[in-house]
Amino acid sequence: MPSAGVEKTFEERFTLPAVESVDDTPEEIRRKQERVRELCRERNAILLAHHYQRAEVQEVADVVADSLKLSQAAAKTGADVIAFCGVHFMAETAAILLPDRIVLLPDLRAGCSLAASLTAEELREWKARVPGAVVVAYINTSAAVKAQSDYCCTSANAAKVVSAIPADRPILFVPDQFLAKVVARQTGRANIIAYPGYCHVHKTIRPEQVVDMLKEHPDAELLLHPECGCVSSCMAKAMDGTLPADRTFFLSTEGMLRHIGESPASEFAVGTELGILHQLNKKFPKKTFHPVNPHAVCAFMKTITLDKVIRSLETLTPRVRVPEDIARQAKGAIDRMLDLA
Known about the structure:
four-stranded parallel sheet, alpha/beta
């Protein structure tokens, strides 16, 4: 049975798209952004963008947030069209919550390596080995996997979701092994069985990079996304004093923004995908941010460009749909996530 600490390679399950170079001038960017806004008005559309999107896409979005807040925004919108500038599982979630609306994903190549690490069939087989276990699925999963799950969660509310489950019930936590370790620590639960999946980008954020970063910037607060491959090591280092426990935090992207806004610190080492730096520098211009891994770029997130957003809104394609039977089953797990937000 897969468990936390088991190494498995999933790279053969996905193909990374090439990151397209966009050489638009500032004036061309402004013109395209105005065209996006014009199309959103015409289509009664809302544009939702994840923190890891290109800066020029974030700037034209109605909402820029993490997976949880984007799901909440999708659930509440009165728009006829939801243009999702994120990755496929995010658009699927919106389509499940709003089956009567048009949900667009401007580039269908925007997949997710973490979601690719677990199929619905693999989850069914795993569930059969642990009868009576509660399945908690990270939102970075396909609709088919969500349909086999009891709860969904995001990195922002995973601990809250797990804490709501009776302590005597074993939990199958899928598919991110690193987030599972953080949740186990936060909740004090020893009966979390973790699937060995991972995000190919966050896995590359290594303990030695963290140590080197804090040597170079000893006064910085350390903010690490729970998907990072260094979480187990960094949790241990924080406990033994190798890392400063009072300045080491495991946070979702939205949690990072909230923490920085409340922290008196002026310098931060940030361990997550580089797209978040745009929002950090925009919201906190007087603070300094150092990426723990300066090469942590998600090619899937970067597939979406302003040109593709414009084309998508003009043609109302590509549209993301979820089969009715899968959507019906998955919605229960998503609703439980939103109820515990």
